[in-house]
Amino acid sequence: METVVEKGTIEFDNIINSKIDKYFESIGLSDTSGLLVKVAVLAVIVLLISYLVNKLTKYYIIKAIERVIRKTKSKYDDFFVDRQVFQRLSHLAPAFVLYIFNGIVFNDFPQVGEVVHKAILIYLVIVFVWSLTAFFSAVMDIYDSHDYAQERPIKGYVQVAQIIGYFIGILLIVSIVFNVELMALFTGLGAIAAVLLLIFKDTILGLVASVQLSAYKMVRAGDWVSMPSHNADGTVVDISLNTVKIQNWDKTITTIPTYEMVSHPFMNWKGMEDSGGRRIKRAVNIDMRSVKFCSKDLLERAKKMHYLKDYVEKKEVELANYNKEMGIDESVTVNGRRMTNIGLFRKYLEAYLHHHPKIHKDMTFLVRHLQPTEKGLPIEFYVFSNDQAWANYESIQADIMDHILAILPEFDLKVYQFPTSGSLPMEN
After folding, report:
1. Domains of the chain: total
2. Is-annotated flag, keyword Transmembrane (predicted)?
3. Chain-wide mean pLDDT for the chain?
């Protein structure tokens, strides 16, 4: 088929050129100078036709197509207009005019015509690849317009397709310039495969990593991630074939190679955001020298506390019955069962957090003792707030700590802290 087309084109060029030659001979331009004038005139005419075709295509045909697309009910085709797919394709029209008339213009100068022919083919390849990349971008925009695109982004795959398009375009240009068959170039690539693997190492690793990130839903745009190895802590703003961009909380941007997200550990806070709660895990160190059994005065104060009144009254009855049944002499402090100020405080803290409007009641709720150390006895509360916004979350746990520190003296307890010059007795 290509042979038939080529023969038809040559015959058409010969017919047109014979008529043009007869015309120039009739006006006395048949020598070398006449040939140059002929080429110049024909070149100007062809360039003018190409210019008119370009204007007609770009400002009338393409504009009409875009207006029709904008009026359709579907919004998918609008993405092709936004990405200027049709505008880029319009550059093919003047190139085709030059391609068709090239043989006629340079019929008497075949070497020059061959160079121009190659230049036009290269231009056509560039415009086609340029339009193809815009087409892939439009397809990605259509995909991203759906909700499930957040779970499985395809930006990495689109970039791979674009790279393949660029690669094939480069091979086509090389085959045009050096008159080499395209299949021969592909065959020769086997010999330089190792070099290509080295050159595109990051791209290949990024492709594999992006597939893993997408398939296993490890991270997506909008997730809050922490990656201490790269000093990254913030929101993922973009995931591409080669890089993942994270906007840190200080508004700086950290760029991490995509394959690093697979080969290095990182924390994704998406699970916390989806759970409806955010963990509060704080502890206050109690000076163990202030731990003691509850005095009558402390128990009377506790009965006036809204959160402890019922507990203290019920506990007093329970302990009194137990000690009576066991025949315990309560005049000795160590005998029997008694309430302690730290146990009373722990129950108060449980009740206080249980009634706190910002604490999630259906998630882990724990108030406990940790291992005593030289820094005192840690009392830890492990709960979840029902407000996940960072500023609100910090305010909630700060309010709780404020209350705990302020309420401790009511239980005759003291917070442990390292001795300072202000807390040491003054020397005489």
Report:
1. 3
2. yes
3. 84
- Extract long-range pairs of 312-319: CB within 8 Å, 24+ residues apart: 312/339, 312/344, 315/339
383 or 149: which carries more pLDDT confidence? 383
Single-letter code of the amino acid located at 90: S
Instruction: Tell me the C-alpha distance between 185 and 164, whole Å.
Output: 15
Residues 31 and 118 both lie in one domain: yes
Over residues 283-310, the pLDDT tens digits come to 999 999 999 999 999 999 999 999 999 9
> Do residues 258 and 179 both lie within one domain?
no
Mean per-residue pLDDT, 145-173: 81
**Beta-carbon neighbour count of residue 294 at 10 Å?**
22
CA distances (Å), origin 95, targets 46, 178, 376: 11, 21, 83
Neighbours of 308 (CB within 10 A): 21
Which among 207, 224, 218 has a CA at the least distance from the CA of 154? 207
On whether residue 427 sits in a domain, the answer given is no
253 and 184 housed in the same domain? no
Would you state the pLDDT for residue 120? Answer: 93
Burial class from Cβ neighbours inside 10 Å (0-12, 13-18, 19+) for residue 428 reads exposed
419 found inside a domain: no
DSSP helix/strand/coil, 242? coil
In a domain, 55, yes or no: yes
283 and 238 fall within a common domain: no
Task: Indicate whether 344 and 264 sit together in one domain.
Answer: no
Residues 142 and 231 in one domain: no
Q: Flag whether 421 is in a domain.
A: no
Instruction: Report CA-CA distances (Å) from 221 to 53, 94, 154, 236, 276.
Output: 44, 42, 12, 5, 20
> Does residue 425 have a pLDDT over 80?
no
Q: Could you tell me if 97 and 226 lie in one domain?
A: no
User: Comparing 12-26, 191-205, 247-261, 334-348, which segment has the lowest mean pLDDT?
Assistant: 12-26
